[in-house]
Protein backbone atom coordinates (compact mmCIF):
# COMPACT_ATOMS: atom_id res chain seq x y z
CA UNK A 1 0.00 0.00 0.00
CA UNK A 2 1.24 3.49 -0.87
CA UNK A 3 0.79 6.18 1.82
CA UNK A 4 -0.83 9.47 0.80
CA UNK A 5 -0.68 12.52 3.05
CA UNK A 6 -4.00 14.19 3.79
CA UNK A 7 -3.46 17.95 3.92
CA UNK A 8 -6.52 19.55 5.48
CA UNK A 9 -7.26 23.16 4.55
CA UNK A 10 -10.66 23.55 6.25
CA UNK A 11 -9.28 26.35 8.43
CA UNK A 12 -7.72 28.23 5.52
CA UNK A 13 -9.37 27.60 2.13
CA UNK A 14 -12.53 26.35 3.89
CA UNK A 15 -12.70 29.43 6.07
CA UNK A 16 -12.51 31.55 2.90
CA UNK A 17 -16.10 30.47 2.06
CA UNK A 18 -18.65 33.28 1.99
CA UNK A 19 -20.27 33.87 5.39
CA UNK A 20 -17.82 31.82 7.49
CA UNK A 21 -15.91 33.53 10.27
CA UNK A 22 -14.57 31.27 12.97
CA UNK A 23 -13.01 32.67 16.13
CA UNK A 24 -9.77 31.37 17.62
CA UNK A 25 -11.43 29.07 20.15
CA UNK A 26 -13.51 27.48 17.39
CA UNK A 27 -10.50 27.05 15.12
CA UNK A 28 -8.58 25.35 17.93
CA UNK A 29 -11.49 22.99 18.51
CA UNK A 30 -11.59 22.07 14.82
CA UNK A 31 -7.80 21.62 14.72
CA UNK A 32 -7.89 19.26 17.72
CA UNK A 33 -10.59 17.23 16.02
CA UNK A 34 -8.58 17.11 12.77
CA UNK A 35 -5.64 15.79 14.79
CA UNK A 36 -7.93 13.07 16.22
CA UNK A 37 -9.05 12.29 12.68
CA UNK A 38 -5.40 11.65 11.83
CA UNK A 39 -4.76 14.18 9.06
CA UNK A 40 -1.08 14.54 8.18
CA UNK A 41 -1.06 18.33 7.81
CA UNK A 42 -3.40 21.05 9.09
CA UNK A 43 -3.33 24.36 7.22
CA UNK A 44 -4.39 26.52 10.15
CA UNK A 45 -4.76 29.87 8.36
CA UNK A 46 -2.99 32.76 6.65
CA UNK A 47 -1.05 34.49 9.48
CA UNK A 48 -0.22 37.70 7.59
CA UNK A 49 -3.83 38.27 6.55
CA UNK A 50 -5.20 39.46 9.93
CA UNK A 51 -4.35 39.55 13.65
CA UNK A 52 -7.13 37.00 14.25
CA UNK A 53 -5.62 34.56 11.75
CA UNK A 54 -2.17 35.06 13.24
CA UNK A 55 -3.40 34.32 16.74
CA UNK A 56 -5.32 31.22 15.66
CA UNK A 57 -2.38 29.75 13.71
CA UNK A 58 -0.04 30.47 16.61
CA UNK A 59 -2.30 28.81 19.19
CA UNK A 60 -2.92 25.79 16.94
CA UNK A 61 0.83 25.38 16.31
CA UNK A 62 1.36 25.25 20.07
CA UNK A 63 -1.57 22.89 20.70
CA UNK A 64 -1.43 20.25 17.97
CA UNK A 65 1.31 17.64 18.30
CA UNK A 66 0.41 14.70 16.05
CA UNK A 67 -0.26 16.55 12.79
CA UNK A 68 2.07 18.99 11.06
CA UNK A 69 0.74 22.57 11.27
CA UNK A 70 1.26 24.97 8.39
CA UNK A 71 0.33 28.55 7.47
CA UNK A 72 -0.20 30.15 4.07
CA UNK A 73 2.03 32.99 2.84
CA UNK A 74 2.44 34.95 -0.37
CA UNK A 75 5.94 34.94 -1.84
CA UNK A 76 6.88 38.07 0.11
CA UNK A 77 9.19 38.51 3.10
CA UNK A 78 6.60 40.03 5.43
CA UNK A 79 4.23 37.10 4.97
CA UNK A 80 7.02 34.59 5.55
CA UNK A 81 8.18 36.45 8.68
CA UNK A 82 4.62 36.54 10.07
CA UNK A 83 4.19 32.84 9.33
CA UNK A 84 7.47 32.01 11.10
CA UNK A 85 6.40 34.01 14.16
CA UNK A 86 3.10 32.11 14.21
CA UNK A 87 4.49 28.62 13.53
CA UNK A 88 7.95 28.55 15.08
CA UNK A 89 6.77 26.63 18.19
CA UNK A 90 5.24 23.82 16.16
CA UNK A 91 6.73 20.31 16.37
CA UNK A 92 7.70 20.44 12.66
CA UNK A 93 7.43 24.01 11.31
CA UNK A 94 5.95 23.99 7.80
CA UNK A 95 5.13 26.90 5.49
CA UNK A 96 2.98 27.02 2.37
CA UNK A 97 4.08 29.77 -0.03
CA UNK A 98 2.24 30.40 -3.28
CA UNK A 99 2.59 32.42 -6.46
CA UNK A 100 0.44 32.39 -9.59
CA UNK A 101 1.96 30.88 -12.74
CA UNK A 102 -0.81 30.96 -15.38
CA UNK A 103 -0.51 33.51 -18.20
CA UNK A 104 -3.78 35.20 -17.22
CA UNK A 105 -2.78 35.56 -13.55
CA UNK A 106 0.78 36.71 -14.32
CA UNK A 107 -0.35 39.31 -16.86
CA UNK A 108 -3.49 40.74 -15.24
CA UNK A 109 -3.20 40.03 -11.53
CA UNK A 110 0.54 40.10 -10.81
CA UNK A 111 1.49 42.30 -13.77
CA UNK A 112 4.81 40.44 -13.91
CA UNK A 113 6.74 38.68 -16.64
CA UNK A 114 7.38 34.91 -16.33
CA UNK A 115 11.05 35.66 -15.53
CA UNK A 116 10.05 37.97 -12.68
CA UNK A 117 7.68 35.32 -11.33
CA UNK A 118 10.46 32.69 -11.34
CA UNK A 119 12.76 35.10 -9.54
CA UNK A 120 10.16 35.97 -6.87
CA UNK A 121 9.28 32.31 -6.25
CA UNK A 122 12.94 31.30 -5.90
CA UNK A 123 13.74 34.21 -3.57
CA UNK A 124 10.74 33.38 -1.37
CA UNK A 125 11.55 29.68 -1.12
CA UNK A 126 15.22 30.43 -0.31
CA UNK A 127 14.14 32.91 2.35
CA UNK A 128 11.54 30.54 3.86
CA UNK A 129 14.09 27.75 3.91
CA UNK A 130 16.26 29.78 6.32
CA UNK A 131 13.58 29.20 8.97
CA UNK A 132 11.43 26.26 7.96
CA UNK A 133 12.58 22.66 7.45
CA UNK A 134 9.41 22.02 5.43
CA UNK A 135 8.57 24.40 2.59
CA UNK A 136 5.64 23.81 0.28
CA UNK A 137 5.49 25.91 -2.86
CA UNK A 138 2.25 26.25 -4.84
CA UNK A 139 1.87 27.24 -8.47
CA UNK A 140 -1.45 29.06 -8.11
CA UNK A 141 -3.71 28.35 -11.11
CA UNK A 142 -1.16 25.63 -11.92
CA UNK A 143 -3.58 23.64 -14.06
CA UNK A 144 -4.05 26.55 -16.51
CA UNK A 145 -0.31 27.25 -16.64
CA UNK A 146 2.03 26.51 -19.52
CA UNK A 147 3.58 23.08 -18.93
CA UNK A 148 7.10 24.03 -19.98
CA UNK A 149 6.94 27.05 -17.70
CA UNK A 150 5.80 24.81 -14.83
CA UNK A 151 8.77 22.51 -15.41
CA UNK A 152 11.13 25.49 -15.43
CA UNK A 153 9.83 27.18 -12.28
CA UNK A 154 9.43 23.90 -10.36
CA UNK A 155 13.03 22.85 -11.04
CA UNK A 156 14.18 26.22 -9.72
CA UNK A 157 12.10 26.14 -6.53
CA UNK A 158 13.22 22.56 -5.85
CA UNK A 159 16.85 23.72 -6.20
CA UNK A 160 15.98 26.56 -3.80
CA UNK A 161 14.87 24.06 -1.16
CA UNK A 162 11.14 23.38 -1.59
CA UNK A 163 10.12 20.04 -0.08
CA UNK A 164 6.60 19.87 -1.57
CA UNK A 165 5.29 21.12 -4.90
CA UNK A 166 1.58 21.81 -5.09
CA UNK A 167 -0.25 21.99 -8.44
CA UNK A 168 -3.63 23.59 -7.74
CA UNK A 169 -6.61 23.58 -10.04
CA UNK A 170 -7.49 26.94 -8.53
CA UNK A 171 -10.58 27.58 -10.65
CA UNK A 172 -11.91 24.00 -10.80
CA UNK A 173 -11.49 23.72 -14.58
CA UNK A 174 -9.71 20.38 -14.97
CA UNK A 175 -11.14 16.99 -15.88
CA UNK A 176 -9.80 13.91 -14.09
CA UNK A 177 -8.00 12.66 -17.19
CA UNK A 178 -6.24 15.99 -17.83
CA UNK A 179 -5.32 16.57 -14.19
CA UNK A 180 -3.93 13.05 -13.87
CA UNK A 181 -1.89 13.50 -17.05
CA UNK A 182 -0.42 16.74 -15.72
CA UNK A 183 0.92 14.94 -12.64
CA UNK A 184 2.37 12.16 -14.78
CA UNK A 185 4.02 14.76 -17.03
CA UNK A 186 5.50 16.73 -14.12
CA UNK A 187 6.75 13.60 -12.34
CA UNK A 188 8.48 12.51 -15.58
CA UNK A 189 9.84 15.88 -16.69
CA UNK A 190 10.76 17.98 -13.65
CA UNK A 191 14.41 17.47 -12.74
CA UNK A 192 14.60 16.71 -9.03
CA UNK A 193 10.96 15.52 -8.86
CA UNK A 194 12.07 12.41 -6.96
CA UNK A 195 13.34 14.64 -4.09
CA UNK A 196 9.96 16.27 -3.36
CA UNK A 197 6.35 15.45 -2.63
CA UNK A 198 3.76 16.39 -5.25
CA UNK A 199 0.45 17.69 -4.00
CA UNK A 200 -3.03 18.07 -5.54
CA UNK A 201 -5.39 20.93 -4.64
CA UNK A 202 -8.73 20.87 -6.44
CA UNK A 203 -11.71 23.18 -6.46
CA UNK A 204 -15.19 21.91 -7.20
CA UNK A 205 -16.56 24.41 -9.73
CA UNK A 206 -17.44 21.63 -12.17
CA UNK A 207 -18.16 19.07 -9.46
CA UNK A 208 -14.97 17.12 -10.20
CA UNK A 209 -12.69 18.02 -7.27
CA UNK A 210 -12.72 14.57 -5.66
CA UNK A 211 -12.38 12.74 -8.97
CA UNK A 212 -9.51 15.04 -9.96
CA UNK A 213 -7.72 14.51 -6.65
CA UNK A 214 -7.98 10.74 -7.06
CA UNK A 215 -6.70 11.00 -10.64
CA UNK A 216 -3.70 12.92 -9.28
CA UNK A 217 -3.07 10.20 -6.68
CA UNK A 218 -3.14 7.57 -9.42
CA UNK A 219 -0.58 9.55 -11.38
CA UNK A 220 2.01 10.21 -8.73
CA UNK A 221 0.64 12.75 -6.22
CA UNK A 222 1.85 12.03 -2.68
CA UNK A 223 -0.51 14.47 -0.97
CA UNK A 224 -4.08 15.69 -1.48
CA UNK A 225 -5.44 18.96 -0.11
CA UNK A 226 -9.05 18.88 0.94
CA UNK A 227 -11.60 20.22 3.41
CA UNK A 228 -14.22 18.78 5.73
CA UNK A 229 -17.64 18.77 4.04
CA UNK A 230 -15.91 20.15 0.93
CA UNK A 231 -16.23 23.77 2.09
CA UNK A 232 -14.03 26.40 0.43
CA UNK A 233 -13.82 29.26 -2.05
CA UNK A 234 -16.86 29.40 -4.38
CA UNK A 235 -18.05 25.81 -4.97
CA UNK A 236 -15.57 24.54 -2.42
CA UNK A 237 -12.61 22.16 -2.31
CA UNK A 238 -12.33 18.39 -2.62
CA UNK A 239 -14.15 16.81 0.28
CA UNK A 240 -11.83 15.04 2.73
CA UNK A 241 -14.39 12.50 3.88
CA UNK A 242 -15.19 11.42 0.32
CA UNK A 243 -11.53 10.91 -0.58
CA UNK A 244 -10.75 9.11 2.70
CA UNK A 245 -13.69 6.74 2.46
CA UNK A 246 -13.20 6.10 -1.27
CA UNK A 247 -9.57 5.12 -0.64
CA UNK A 248 -10.72 2.74 2.10
CA UNK A 249 -13.71 1.15 0.38
CA UNK A 250 -11.86 0.77 -2.92
CA UNK A 251 -8.46 -0.18 -1.57
CA UNK A 252 -8.69 -3.23 -3.85
CA UNK A 253 -8.44 -0.75 -6.74
CA UNK A 254 -6.34 2.15 -5.45
CA UNK A 255 -4.02 0.37 -2.97
CA UNK A 256 -3.72 3.58 -0.95
CA UNK A 257 -3.34 4.15 2.78
CA UNK A 258 -4.32 7.58 4.20
CA UNK A 259 -3.65 7.13 7.92
CA UNK A 260 -7.12 8.56 8.67
CA UNK A 261 -9.09 7.36 11.65
CA UNK A 262 -12.35 7.04 9.72
CA UNK A 263 -14.44 6.59 12.88
CA UNK A 264 -13.91 10.32 13.55
CA UNK A 265 -15.38 11.38 10.18
CA UNK A 266 -18.97 11.94 11.25
CA UNK A 267 -18.03 13.85 14.35
CA UNK A 268 -15.56 16.07 12.48
CA UNK A 269 -18.13 16.79 9.81
CA UNK A 270 -20.77 17.75 12.36
CA UNK A 271 -18.40 19.92 14.37
CA UNK A 272 -17.34 21.84 11.25
CA UNK A 273 -20.95 22.23 10.12
CA UNK A 274 -22.04 23.46 13.55
CA UNK A 275 -19.20 25.94 14.04
CA UNK A 276 -19.20 27.30 10.48
CA UNK A 277 -22.99 27.35 10.17
CA UNK A 278 -22.68 25.61 6.77
CA UNK A 279 -25.42 23.02 6.58
CA UNK A 280 -24.59 19.66 4.98
CA UNK A 281 -26.87 18.77 2.08
CA UNK A 282 -28.93 15.67 3.06
CA UNK A 283 -27.70 13.56 0.15
CA UNK A 284 -24.02 14.49 0.57
CA UNK A 285 -21.87 11.37 0.15
CA UNK A 286 -20.57 9.84 3.41
CA UNK A 287 -21.82 12.53 5.84
CA UNK A 288 -25.26 13.63 4.59
CA UNK A 289 -28.17 12.73 6.83
CA UNK A 290 -29.57 10.47 4.09
CA UNK A 291 -26.23 8.89 3.13
CA UNK A 292 -27.25 5.62 4.79
CA UNK A 293 -31.05 5.91 4.59
CA UNK A 294 -32.74 3.33 2.37
CA UNK A 295 -36.09 4.73 1.29
CA UNK A 296 -37.57 2.50 -1.39
CA UNK A 297 -39.38 -0.67 -0.34
CA UNK A 298 -37.27 -2.82 -2.63
CA UNK A 299 -34.03 -1.42 -1.15
CA UNK A 300 -35.28 -1.79 2.43
CA UNK A 301 -36.28 -5.38 1.74
CA UNK A 302 -32.85 -6.12 0.24
CA UNK A 303 -30.96 -4.53 3.14
CA UNK A 304 -33.03 -6.45 5.69
CA UNK A 305 -32.18 -9.72 3.92
CA UNK A 306 -28.50 -8.90 3.42
CA UNK A 307 -27.00 -5.47 4.20
CA UNK A 308 -24.55 -5.52 1.32
CA UNK A 309 -27.29 -5.72 -1.31
CA UNK A 310 -27.46 -1.93 -1.22
CA UNK A 311 -24.91 -0.81 1.37
CA UNK A 312 -21.28 -0.39 0.33
CA UNK A 313 -20.29 1.69 3.38
CA UNK A 314 -21.36 0.70 6.86
CA UNK A 315 -22.43 3.74 8.93
CA UNK A 316 -20.21 2.50 11.80
CA UNK A 317 -17.13 2.88 9.58
CA UNK A 318 -17.45 6.69 9.78
CA UNK A 319 -18.58 6.73 13.40
CA UNK A 320 -22.27 7.01 12.74
CA UNK A 321 -24.60 4.88 14.78
CA UNK A 322 -26.88 4.91 17.74
CA UNK A 323 -24.92 5.83 20.83
CA UNK A 324 -26.42 4.27 23.98
CA UNK A 325 -28.02 6.86 26.23
CA UNK A 326 -25.81 7.22 29.21
CA UNK A 327 -26.99 10.42 30.82
CA UNK A 328 -30.32 11.64 32.12
CA UNK A 329 -31.99 13.81 34.69
CA UNK A 330 -30.49 11.92 37.61
CA UNK A 331 -26.90 11.77 36.37
CA UNK A 332 -24.34 13.42 38.61
CA UNK A 333 -21.35 15.64 37.91
CA UNK A 334 -18.85 12.75 37.92
CA UNK A 335 -20.77 10.82 35.26
CA UNK A 336 -21.13 14.01 33.21
CA UNK A 337 -17.40 14.74 33.41
CA UNK A 338 -16.58 11.15 32.47
CA UNK A 339 -18.87 11.29 29.41
CA UNK A 340 -17.41 14.67 28.35
CA UNK A 341 -13.88 13.24 28.57
CA UNK A 342 -14.88 10.12 26.62
CA UNK A 343 -16.28 12.42 23.93
CA UNK A 344 -12.87 14.08 23.71
CA UNK A 345 -13.62 17.33 25.61
CA UNK A 346 -11.03 18.80 27.90
CA UNK A 347 -12.92 21.58 29.70
CA UNK A 348 -11.68 23.79 32.50
CA UNK A 349 -13.42 23.31 35.86
CA UNK A 350 -15.42 26.50 35.33
CA UNK A 351 -16.56 25.56 31.84
CA UNK A 352 -17.43 22.04 32.95
CA UNK A 353 -19.59 23.43 35.74
CA UNK A 354 -21.39 25.74 33.30
CA UNK A 355 -21.94 22.86 30.87
CA UNK A 356 -23.27 20.73 33.74
CA UNK A 357 -25.72 23.47 34.75
CA UNK A 358 -26.95 23.72 31.15
CA UNK A 359 -27.24 19.94 31.00
CA UNK A 360 -29.37 19.89 34.18
CA UNK A 361 -31.64 22.62 32.82
CA UNK A 362 -32.07 20.71 29.60
CA UNK A 363 -32.66 17.39 31.37
CA UNK A 364 -35.52 18.98 33.29
CA UNK A 365 -37.22 20.02 30.07
CA UNK A 366 -36.31 17.24 27.68
CA UNK A 367 -37.09 13.55 27.98
CA UNK A 368 -33.99 12.13 26.33
CA UNK A 369 -30.57 13.77 26.18
CA UNK A 370 -28.97 12.56 22.96
CA UNK A 371 -25.32 12.45 21.93
CA UNK A 372 -26.02 15.41 19.60
CA UNK A 373 -27.45 17.45 22.50
CA UNK A 374 -24.35 16.74 24.58
CA UNK A 375 -22.07 17.61 21.66
CA UNK A 376 -23.90 20.93 21.15
CA UNK A 377 -23.82 21.80 24.83
CA UNK A 378 -20.18 20.85 25.42
CA UNK A 379 -18.95 22.46 22.20
CA UNK A 380 -20.69 25.72 23.13
CA UNK A 381 -18.81 25.78 26.43
CA UNK A 382 -15.51 24.67 24.89
CA UNK A 383 -15.47 27.53 22.39
CA UNK A 384 -16.86 30.22 24.70
CA UNK A 385 -14.55 33.14 25.37
CA UNK A 386 -13.92 34.03 29.00
CA UNK A 387 -11.73 37.09 29.01
CA UNK A 388 -13.75 39.50 26.82
CA UNK A 389 -16.90 41.31 28.00
CA UNK A 390 -19.69 40.57 25.56
CA UNK A 391 -23.42 41.07 25.10
CA UNK A 392 -25.39 38.52 27.10
CA UNK A 393 -29.10 37.80 26.71
CA UNK A 394 -30.77 37.75 30.11
CA UNK A 395 -34.34 37.26 28.93
CA UNK A 396 -36.57 37.54 25.90
CA UNK A 397 -40.33 37.58 25.73
CA UNK A 398 -42.42 37.60 22.58
CA UNK A 399 -46.08 38.42 22.27
CA UNK A 400 -47.55 36.96 19.09
CA UNK A 401 -51.06 36.32 17.83
CA UNK A 402 -52.44 36.07 14.31
CA UNK A 403 -54.43 39.28 14.93
CA UNK A 404 -51.80 41.19 16.99
CA UNK A 405 -48.69 43.14 16.14
CA UNK A 406 -45.79 40.90 17.21
CA UNK A 407 -43.79 42.54 20.02
CA UNK A 408 -40.51 41.43 21.60
CA UNK A 409 -39.08 42.58 24.92
CA UNK A 410 -35.46 41.72 25.63
CA UNK A 411 -33.11 42.29 28.57
CA UNK A 412 -29.46 42.30 27.67
CA UNK A 413 -26.31 42.76 29.75
CA UNK A 414 -24.01 45.02 27.73
CA UNK A 415 -20.20 44.66 27.54
CA UNK A 416 -20.07 47.68 29.87
CA UNK A 417 -21.99 45.71 32.50
CA UNK A 418 -25.26 47.60 32.16
CA UNK A 419 -28.59 45.75 32.11
CA UNK A 420 -30.84 47.21 29.42
CA UNK A 421 -34.44 46.30 28.67
CA UNK A 422 -36.23 47.40 25.51
CA UNK A 423 -39.18 46.41 23.35
CA UNK A 424 -39.96 46.71 19.64
CA UNK A 425 -42.49 45.41 17.14
CA UNK A 426 -42.00 43.64 13.83
CA UNK A 427 -44.01 41.97 11.09
CA UNK A 428 -43.29 38.61 12.77
CA UNK A 429 -41.80 37.34 16.03
CA UNK A 430 -38.30 37.03 14.59
CA UNK A 431 -38.31 40.52 13.11
CA UNK A 432 -39.57 41.89 16.45
CA UNK A 433 -36.60 40.24 18.19
CA UNK A 434 -34.14 41.57 15.62
CA UNK A 435 -35.61 45.09 15.88
CA UNK A 436 -35.41 45.02 19.68
CA UNK A 437 -31.82 43.80 19.76
CA UNK A 438 -30.71 46.28 17.11
CA UNK A 439 -31.57 49.11 19.50
CA UNK A 440 -29.46 47.48 22.21
CA UNK A 441 -26.25 46.88 20.25
CA UNK A 442 -25.56 50.46 19.09
CA UNK A 443 -25.15 50.15 15.37
CA UNK A 444 -26.76 49.38 12.07
CA UNK A 445 -27.50 45.73 11.51
CA UNK A 446 -28.54 44.15 8.20
CA UNK A 447 -29.72 40.56 8.31
CA UNK A 448 -28.19 38.63 5.40
CA UNK A 449 -29.46 35.15 6.19
CA UNK A 450 -31.38 33.41 8.95
CA UNK A 451 -32.01 29.68 9.46
CA UNK A 452 -33.33 27.41 12.19
CA UNK A 453 -32.99 23.64 12.38
CA UNK A 454 -33.37 20.93 14.95
CA UNK A 455 -30.23 19.48 16.51
CA UNK A 456 -31.65 15.98 16.95
CA UNK A 457 -34.87 14.07 16.38
CA UNK A 458 -38.20 14.35 18.20
CA UNK A 459 -40.64 17.13 19.03
CA UNK A 460 -38.65 18.26 22.07
CA UNK A 461 -35.36 18.47 20.13
CA UNK A 462 -33.03 21.40 20.68
CA UNK A 463 -33.43 24.09 18.03
CA UNK A 464 -30.38 25.70 16.50
CA UNK A 465 -30.52 29.20 14.97
CA UNK A 466 -27.95 30.63 12.58
CA UNK A 467 -27.92 34.36 11.89
CA UNK A 468 -25.70 35.88 9.24
CA UNK A 469 -25.60 39.67 9.52
CA UNK A 470 -23.64 42.80 8.76
CA UNK A 471 -22.90 44.96 11.81
CA UNK A 472 -21.27 48.34 11.22
CA UNK A 473 -19.77 47.01 7.99
CA UNK A 474 -18.53 43.72 9.51
CA UNK A 475 -20.06 40.46 8.21
CA UNK A 476 -20.54 37.77 10.79
CA UNK A 477 -22.35 34.50 11.37
CA UNK A 478 -23.66 33.72 14.85
CA UNK A 479 -25.33 30.60 16.14
CA UNK A 480 -26.88 29.21 19.26
CA UNK A 481 -28.99 26.26 20.32
CA UNK A 482 -31.81 26.29 22.79
CA UNK A 483 -34.99 24.44 23.43
CA UNK A 484 -36.94 27.36 22.10
CA UNK A 485 -36.06 28.59 18.62
CA UNK A 486 -36.90 32.22 19.46
CA UNK A 487 -34.48 32.19 22.39
CA UNK A 488 -31.89 30.50 20.12
CA UNK A 489 -32.54 33.23 17.52
CA UNK A 490 -31.93 36.08 19.99
CA UNK A 491 -28.76 34.41 21.28
CA UNK A 492 -27.49 33.65 17.75
CA UNK A 493 -27.98 37.34 16.83
CA UNK A 494 -25.94 38.46 19.85
CA UNK A 495 -23.36 35.76 19.13
CA UNK A 496 -22.81 37.28 15.67
CA UNK A 497 -22.38 40.76 17.22
CA UNK A 498 -20.03 39.35 19.90
CA UNK A 499 -17.77 37.92 17.19
CA UNK A 500 -17.11 41.46 16.02
CA UNK A 501 -16.23 42.50 19.57
CA UNK A 502 -13.86 39.52 19.95
CA UNK A 503 -12.17 40.27 16.62
CA UNK A 504 -11.73 43.91 17.63
CA UNK A 505 -10.24 42.91 20.99
CA UNK A 506 -7.69 40.61 19.27
CA UNK A 507 -6.80 43.45 16.89
CA UNK A 508 -6.39 45.96 19.72
CA UNK A 509 -4.29 43.49 21.77
CA UNK A 510 -1.96 42.93 18.83
CA UNK A 511 -1.66 46.64 18.05
CA UNK A 512 -0.74 47.27 21.70
CA UNK A 513 1.90 44.50 21.55
CA UNK A 514 3.48 46.04 18.43
O1 LIG B 1 -6.71 27.32 -4.95
C1 LIG B 1 -5.55 27.71 -4.81
O2 LIG B 1 -4.79 27.90 -5.75
C2 LIG B 1 -5.10 27.97 -3.44
C3 LIG B 1 -3.65 28.26 -3.28
C4 LIG B 1 -3.38 29.29 -2.26
C5 LIG B 1 -2.93 26.98 -3.01
O3 LIG B 1 -5.85 27.86 -2.51
ZN1 LIG C 1 -7.69 26.78 -3.08
UniProtKB/TrEMBL annotation:
A matching Pfam family: HMGL-like
Molecular function terms from GO: 2-isopropylmalate synthase activity
Assembly with partners or alone: Homodimer.
Protein name: 2-isopropylmalate synthase
Top EC category: transferase
Keywords: Acyltransferase, Amino-acid biosynthesis, Branched-chain amino acid biosynthesis, Cytoplasm, Leucine biosynthesis, Manganese, Metal-binding, Transferase
InterPro entries, alphabetized: 2-IPM_HCS-like, 2-isopropylmalate_synth_dimer, AIPM/Hcit_synth_CS, Aldolase_TIM, LeuA/HCS_post-cat, LeuA_allosteric_dom_sf, LeuA_bact_synth, PYR_CT
EC number: 2.3.3.13
UniProt pathway: Amino-acid biosynthesis; L-leucine biosynthesis; L-leucine from 3-methyl-2-oxobutanoate: step 1/4
Keyword Membrane in record: no
Region: Regulatory domain, residue numbers: 392-514
Amino acid sequence: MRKIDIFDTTLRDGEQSAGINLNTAEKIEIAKQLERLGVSIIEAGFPASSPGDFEAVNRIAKTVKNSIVTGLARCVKNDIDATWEAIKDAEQPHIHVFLATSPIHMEYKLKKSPDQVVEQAVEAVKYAKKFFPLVQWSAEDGFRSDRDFLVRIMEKVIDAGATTINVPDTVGYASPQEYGELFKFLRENVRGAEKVKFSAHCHDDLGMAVANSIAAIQNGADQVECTINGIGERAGNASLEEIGVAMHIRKDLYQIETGLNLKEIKRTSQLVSRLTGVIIQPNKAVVGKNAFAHESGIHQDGVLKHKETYEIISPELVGEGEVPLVLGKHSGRAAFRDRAEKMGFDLSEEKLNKAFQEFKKLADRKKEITEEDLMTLLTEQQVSIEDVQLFELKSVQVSYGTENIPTATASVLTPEGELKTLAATGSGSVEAIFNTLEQLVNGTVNILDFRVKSVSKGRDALGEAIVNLRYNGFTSTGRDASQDVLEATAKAYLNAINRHIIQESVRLKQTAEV
